[in-house]
Amino acid sequence: MARSQASILNRKRLELKLKALPHNGADKVRKAIAKGARELADAARALAPSASLLYARFVEFGTKGGGKNRPDHPGTTARPFLFPAYRILKKRIVGRIRRAVKAAAKEAAKDNAGAAP
């Protein structure tokens, strides 16, 4: 199954902060973010009512029906799959990222402590 690309809110700000970390620390944080994104995508796929997510927005939130082209269409009920996956995994994903950031900050502090003033 092909992986889809997602956008990150405040990506430029995140990249600036990651650049301030030592190279190894920034990689750890990026890996934690990527692992969380993969877990969320896998969980959403498992919860999705169908394998085709071409119309994922309409499945997640449902439709009102009675549109211009199909006035007799009754609409569809919402069958959420993305937000439930997010709620299930939020603590795990955020915790993993926080641990990676703390480890990177400790590593940076340790490296800076050995440097001459």
Q: How does this model look, in words?
A:
The chain has 117 residues and is mainly α. It has one domain. It contains four helices and no strands. It has helices at residues 11-20, 23-47, 56-61, 82-113. Helix 2 packs antiparallel against helix 4. The model has no long low-confidence stretch (mean pLDDT 83).
Quick overview:
By secondary structure, the protein is an all-alpha fold. It is 62% helix and 0% strand. The mean pLDDT is 83.
The radius of gyration is 20 Å
Strand percentage, roughly? under 5%
Task: Describe the global form.
Answer: elongated
Query: Residue share in helices?
Result: 55-70%
Number of strands: 0
Distance between the termini: 52 Å
Return the average pLDDT rounded to an integer.
83
- Note poorly predicted spans: none
Q: Mind summarizing the main beta sheet?
A: none
How many structural domains? 1
How would you summarize the topology of this molecule?
Layout (H helix, E strand, L loop, with lengths): L10 H10 L2 H25 L8 H6 L20 H32 L4
List keywords for this structure.
0% strand; 117 residues; mainly alpha
